Amino acid sequence: MRYLKKSSGKYKLVIDANVIISAIFGGYPEKVIQISISHEIFAPLILKKELDRFIEKVGCKKESLHLKEFFDYLLNHIKLVTVEKVEKVSRDKTDDLYIAATIQEKVDFLITGDKDLLSCSNIHKWSFKILSPKESIDIIRKS
Question: Which fold would CATH assign to domain 12-142?
Fold first, then answer.
């Protein structure tokens, strides 16, 4: 399947919390964040709570402040959406929220490192593709 950018030249993306948190450590998740900023990014409201919970777990005040600044910067580029209709399609209710946001906003790609979410792509035939960070970089850069 070939993916084409919208007339605006931008993809519509949903990036889940595990990719955003993993971006702190570099690698493909960090590259995903770097190239995604120039596209349209959506996420369910739960994203903010997931990021806040991660900051609380860190414990170190100095590190927490840096993480909060990083997450706030990203959240300024992400449209958080209230999901209207959530169907149970995975083992995790939070994963279902990400899928529902992807469907609702007519997104091109859901980018995740979550193996359960990645496996959903093989089970369901949606209008969007669920991609790992590496796969998403390859597709976005080629277009």
Answer: Rossmann fold (3.40.50)
